[in-house]
Amino acid sequence: MIPCRRRELVVSTSTGLSFSHVFADLSASIANTIVPAAAFSWLVPQGQATVQLAKCNFETSGYVLTPIKSLRYAPPTGATFGATFAGDNIGIGSTTYTASVVKTDGTAYTPNGVIKDVRGKVALTGAGTGTFGLYSIDQIYDPDIGSTYDGTVDVTQYIKSLTLSVEEDGKATCEISAIAKLMVDAGVEQPDVTSDRPVRIALSDGASPPVYQDFFRGTLQPPRIEYLDRDTSYNWATYKYTGVDRSGDFDLAWLVESFPYDGIYALNAILDLMSIAGYDGSTYFSGDNPLQELPYTTNISKGQYSLAPDYGDTVGSYIEKIKQEYYATWITGWMPTATGYLYQWLDVDSASTASTMTLYQSIADATTAGVAEVLRPQRVIRSLNSYYEQPECTQVTVIGQDPNTGIWIPYTQIDNAAETADTPPASRPRNWRGRPVPYQYRDPALNTLNAVTASCLMLYNRLTTGRTLIEFDATFLVYNVSNRPVWLGDVIKLMDTDGTSVLGNYRIIAIPSIEFVQENTPGSSTLFNVRKASYRAVRVSDGV
After folding, report:
1. Is the preceding peptide bond at 260 cis, omega within 30 degrees of 0?
2. Amino acid 527: pLDDT
3. What's the predicted TM-score (pTM) here?
4. Where exactly are the structural domains of the chain?
5. Nearest CA among 534, 379, 530, 515 for reference residue 472
6. CA distance 288 to 343
7. Mean pLDDT of the 246-250 span
């Protein structure tokens, strides 16, 4: 009798008759005690049986070789393989297991940029009372990431206008209008043809020397060139660039090999995916830690995984998959932070609802409240709209699948109060729809009831609550102490028109437009910088 695969008992006989039994009530996500270390007995439902038992002994050392694998690319000199094991200890005691990559004949292998045909090798050592039930091994080396030319050209004075947009998915885009001849004269090489040109947009604190706060880093595409009528020279032409933040690097990083993330923490999966796109997670990841343990299936031993990217997935699409299934309410994206421009994950369900900036509806109100004169124009909104966004549904069903039996695993959460049709208007909850409005999500990767339940509750919290939203225009909001712009996840307090009452605290969820324009003031050669923005925010508290 060999307990294995976390919920399976293999019974083998000396006559060659063997069978296995899967205990459907046990979870594959944890190591279970299938056969306790105690006395046991056989129950024969009918007739009689003769049972003879013998203790299992195991070899104290051995190894396993995988079939030959022809790699897509020959690993470069200096490449180091990391190994991910799937399996469980069998028997008494623990077994030491180590992995290496070897040549096809089993001899030692050193990456040299030439050899592509290799095998995986796992060496096992134990006391003879147990072994390691190896289901699979995945051996991976990080891709060789190059660096672009790091020379810089400051083109601030040649920019006619700059517009940015940050939507609720956290991705930021930009549009830049620049004077063509001046860009060439400034030393920008091939300004009309170069693709994926790195760009940095930052705020100066006005000090000498200035300290800059990055609020956009990404890449530009070749520009559209707008010529003056009947003049195809660059003398009066304008470059119109479009760009995307570093999320564009995630979307261009294709996962050319499929490898599993079964049973590891979501954070570790995200950090690994970031490294594939060329970003060291220990340097660039910030915010709250997504510590959900991802689903695990013992069918790994059959070459089946719960979470393995498909060929054609990108780093961006797979991170988004993890987010939507387990962290749908979180705010994510590349953001300006106190420690730099970083890839941030924010758990808004547990985040503080206290405001970090107060906004007023008139200069007079800001003055009465004691706002410093130089900051008053920057703490007043110019327009305001408010609306209630009804919930997308009243009930959520998530369906996973047991990998061993193929049986679907459903879980449903229903807001009955939001569905009750005959509730009087005065008693209706804010998210009332008066009818069942279902939403269903199905994913076989959710292979346990715990995983299905967690995903269902996350979607339920996002889709059934409804939101009170505001949209307002203001001067581009910047914290005067840190010089950091107000960004997604930040909470602002909005005062009412009387200057003393609070409309509420609102969390910024999008910045649809940030506009910078350089204009010549009439009669003056001094450039006047217009900095305005529109914001979308969701109500989080009364803010009193």
Report:
1. no
2. 53
3. 0.85
4. 1-54, 57-141, 156-245, 250-346, 357-388+468-541, 391-465
5. 534
6. 11
7. 96
